[in-house]
Design brief:
single chain, alpha+beta, Arc Repressor Mutant, subunit A, Trna Endonuclease, Chain: A, domain 1, 2 domains, seven-stranded mixed sheet, 11 helices
Length: about 300
Amino acid sequence: MDKIEEVRKFLKMIGMPKQQQTDLCCYVVLAMAGIQPEMSFSEAKNEWIRIHDIIQFSNINYGTTYAENSRETFRKQALHRFRTAALVEDNGKPTNSPNYMYRLTDEVLRLIRQIQTKELEEDIFRFLQYHEKLIDIYDSKKKMTMMPVRINGSDFKFSVGKHNELQKAILEEFAPRFAPDSECLYVGDTIEKDLVKNSNKLTELGFEITLHDKMPDVVLYREDTHWIYFIESVTSVGPMDPKRILEIEEMTKNVTAGKIFITAFLDFKTYKKFSEVLAWETEVWIAELPEHMIHLNGDKFLGPR
C-alpha cells in the first residue's frame, strides 16, 4: 500500500469524514509529518510548517501540481478540520501573519509513527477515548441545528436554511389555513431530496414523473375537494412563472384533480422582487402575512364583498 493509501486508511480509522480523506488531505498529513516516499512512518516529525511549505513539499516529493493560490483550499478542507479533530495545532499568530503555522499534535505524531504496525489500532482506540471523532462532531452539530416539522401527523426534521424555514411555514401555517385536512404527497429537504414522497398516491392521481422532472417543492392533496396544491418555496429562485407552469402541466397532463399553483415567499420584500415574473392564474402566499393570499386570477374573484 502506498503512502497516500496508508494515510487515507489512518484518517478513516481516526474518524475523519470522507471529505477529509481526499488526496489533498493525505498530502497535508505527509507534509506535516515530513514523510517522503522512501521514508518510514516511524521517522515522522512535527515541526512548525506553513501552508506554503505544505504545497512545496507535496509538489517536490509527490509530483503534485498545487498552485500557491490554492492555499485557502488547504486551509478550509484540511487544516481547519484537522484542528477541530485535535490532529493539528496552530502557533497562535494572527491568521494573516506570514508566520502563522501549524504542526501535528504530539499525540497524533505518535499515532502516525505507528502506521503499518499492529499497535496502531489499539493506540487509535485510546486516542478516541479522549478526542471525539470529527465525523461525530459534525453529526451532533447537524442534529442540534435540525428544525422539527410536523408532516401528515408525524415528526420529521429539516436541515437549517431559509428554503426549509419557508417549507416548514407552508406545512404548518399555510396548509391548516388554506388546505385544511390536506395530505402532503411530496416535500424535499435541501439535504434529503425526497423527505416525503407518496409515490403510490401520486401515480394513482395520474402523475408521470421521470428522472429529469423537478417536482414542486411542496405538493398537497385535499381529498374532499379533489384539489392538488403545487407550491414553490422561493427565497432566491424558482417562482411560478409561465415556464414553470408549463413544466408542471406536462408532468401532470393525466391528472384530473383541480390544480392550484402557488408561490410562497418568506416576506413581502422577496415577493416584490419576483412580482413581475409570476404567472397569471396563480396564487401567492407570504409567510410573514400568513392569514392572507394574493390571487393573480383576473375576474375569478371580482365582485362585491
